[in-house]
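Hi there,

I know you've been waiting on this one. I reran it after we fixed the sequence typo, so this is the corrected version. Both the input and the resulting structure follow.
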Amino acid sequence: MSKPRTWPAHVILAAGALVMLAPFAWQLIVSLQTLPDSLRVPPKFTPSWQWSNFVDVFRSVPLGRQFLNTVVVTAAVTAGQLLLCSLAAFAFARLRFPGRGILFMAFLAVLMVPGELFLIPRYEIMTGLGWLNTLQALIAPGVFGAFGTFLLRQFFMSLPKELDEAASIDGANPWQIYWHILLPLVRPGLLALGLLTVMWSWSSLLWPLVVNTDPEMMTLSAGLASLRGQFLTNYPILFAGSIVASLPVIVLFVVMQRQLIAGIAFTGSKG
């Protein structure tokens, strides 16, 4: 029996990969060019090997402090998402209480509301709390989300109910069942949610630009956005900073992509 030919699919996938990698290649080329070379028409497709751009970006903005801010915010938001979303998912999947289904559907309705609609209310809350130009203003709105709850709920629902019953017979309360029995079994879902939250929080731009105006309290995305000038933008320095900012997330995704894909694919296996 002859094997099906797979080379056409590989050719198509390779072409798609090259198209997706083209912007990153252009970003790297421009980051190594001089400003006149980056503004040439037609464009110059070879680097000028201007390695000083990667040094100049640290002089243009407090990139080191912004990098630290981004790490702190991303770590705090990810930890909050994993804890709070897993608690809510456990309640919706394993605990029985009146109106659970209706409440869960209303909870998921939040996903259909554009995030921009919450900007003004969130800003008013941060102003009332005196949290403008602080890291907690970046952390608090992101520590819980409807998507994370839905994602982990699918994992909790896939586990057999006999685990809860056996633990209850042994005298375990709901908290002990959640923490000691079920949470270790949904590790793929936790990894998937953690990776998605890291990528989302690391690249978040709109909210950091709205709530923080002090360069020392900005994250990387907001700090790099401040490099855009009104009349002229130094694209080599801007692109160099973008590479520095995106490199940690790219490395994390390459290392953990199998867990991410497996976790996302599993969410549709059980309703």
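Quick highlight: The chain has a mean pLDDT of 89.

Best,
R. S.
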